[in-house]
Amino acid sequence: MLDAEQAHELSLKSLKLLHAFSINPYKIKTPNTQPLNCMGLTFPNRVGLAAGLDKNGDYIDALGSLGFGFIEVGTVTPRPQPGNPRPRIFRLPQAEAIINRMGFNNKGIDHLIEQVKKRKYSGILGINIGKNFDTPIENAVDDYLIGLEKSYPYADYITVNISSPNTKNLRQLQEKAEMEKLLSVLKSKQQQLEMQHQTKVPLLIKIAPDLSDDAIAEMADLFLQYEIDGVIATNTTISREQVQQYSVAKEAGGLSGKPVFNASNHVIAELNKRLANNIPIVGVGGISHVNDAKIKIQSGASLVQVYSGFIYQGPALIKSLVNAILP
What we know:
Elements: H1 4-20, E1 36-38, E2 41-43, E3 47-49, H2 60-64, E4 70-76, E5 89-92, E6 97-100, H3 109-117, E7 124-129, H4 140-151, E8 157-161, H5 176-197, E9 203-207, H6 213-225, E10 230-233, E11 254-257, H7 261-275, E12 281-284, H8 290-299, E13 303-306, H9 308-313, H10 316-324
Parallel strand pairs: 3-4, 3-13, 4-7, 7-8, 8-9, 9-10, 10-12, 12-13
Antiparallel strand pairs: 1-2, 5-6, 6-11
Helix pairs in contact: 4-5, 5-6, 6-7, 7-8
């Protein structure tokens, strides 16, 4: 009955309040699963929360109590920014989908780091970094370097978001020349920070589902060349092919949920052929049932993340996924 963004904010605040008073009815005990080793990290289970739901790290412990093996916060930018004008989230319940054009609204990386420092959640925590909307695309690498350096001491892994459709020209960074430049600089910085902090924090790249097979092949070659630690496939889609019958489909933004499922699986499978198990893949896009997650893993994903399915199915989805896809 509420505006989608109001419902989102109210739900998270309510969950945090319930968690604070230890009366969270959705809290589950640690499932009887074997930990999974991936990217040099030990994941309690394969099921994670995708970036975007907790952009500022304000709800890590409350969300962690639902049984996630890992949580990814962000996307966060160097400076706070309001994002795009409201309304900017639109539900398509018949399609189990969401369109959003949030535009990296967040309180800035300094706020997020302060929240991360306070966490009691013992699972794996990823920090997803992006660029400010007013940073010229030719200077985008500077914003990512700020995010990488500030996140490094506090993240279990760091994701570079170059695939959101809601920041102007951002997806340009997925083009071969731009990506090669970005990966070269970020990998060099990661190696420097590893020496400085005496620990390696994996660096992941999040890519779009709207890629040709040739583009996927070029990316895979670059990921291997620069020894990227992981790939998240995929972000939201700009395609409306699966939802064109709905009036809300005309809204600008990225489409998530069931309609992106097949496109995401195709990207995962193509990446898997090229990467040949040398770089792990995190599968995300359209998981709302146990079988969806199993298909992602069969396509080549080592880990999975949920977002829209979690919105529509609720916390029970997490428990069912964790119990069904044992390592």
